[in-house]
Amino acid sequence: MRSVNKVIIVGNLTRDPELKETQGGQAIATFGVATNREWGNGEGERKSSVEFHEVVAWARRAEVCHQILKKGNLVYIEGYLKTRSWDGEDGKKRFRTEIVIEDIIKLEKRPMGEVEYTPSENPVASVINAEEGEAAADAFGDIEEVKPTTDENPTF
Hints:
single chain; CATH 2.40.50.140; 2 helices; 43% strand
């Protein structure tokens, strides 16, 4: 039987990516992402909850994350869950479940209530800005451009 380990989140960085190197010379970046969930209870009251996720990027993705992402950035992340364990200084076994990045896109935040849309806008901002150039695009793999529709209410 086949199994699936796939995670997709959209959230805000809780801290700048920290870049380190393994003993073997492999780049690794770690950072946190917060996601929010809102719902209404039976009495019409709005409730919300925040989840904090530990995120890991390896190799060239790690370097690019460290270069272009900052605390507060909104990101779309696809990856998989990985739980690692180690012995703490007190001798107790410790565990941490992390999201290992396979794809990441830096998104642009829009002001609340903004509904104006022009066809020249790209509704999803790619990870590359003019100053980052091809290196960022190559590190994150192929980035598909979202083509706006001509409908009054475009769908993405």
